[in-house]
Amino acid sequence: MDSLKAQYRNIIEKVLQDYADFLGSDEDVEIELVFDRERDRYLLVEAGWQNGYRIYGNLQHINMVDCKLWIQHDGTEDGVAVDLVAAGIPKEQIVLGFRTLEQRKLTEFAVS
Fold first, then answer.
1. pLDDT tens track for 55-86
2. What percent of the chain has a predicted confidence (pLDDT) above 90?
């Protein structure tokens, strides 16, 4: 189980790093990766200022609980779950935590 957790951690970090690289930081808005491997919390955040307005937002939030990936927030168009599956995570190990239980039952991903 530990080797599977390590594999999942590496995949999560790689997928979020790819998003960060795609978005890129500039002098006004920084893209930040927050990885807490001890508690298995992974975030992609933007912070800064643009045209006099504060920019701050959580773009991605993934937790690993009992070797399942709970997507708590997904601020992407296509969905980070698609990228996690493409990277080797089985659909039954991914929970769309930002959806209600009833909505999760209608997806091809894990319910909980």
1. 999 999 999 999 999 999 999 988 999 999 99
2. 92
pLDDT score, position 77: 87
Question: Across the chain, which distance is largest between two alpha carbons, in Å?
Answer: 48
Within a 10 A sphere around the Cβ of 71, how many other Cβ atoms?
20
Q: How far apart are CA 10 and CA 15, in angstroms?
A: 9
Domains, the chain: 2-104 (3.30.310.110)
C-alpha 23/C-alpha 40 separation (Å) is 23
Residues belonging to the chain:
112
Q: Which helix (H) or strand (E) holds 30?
A: strand 29-36
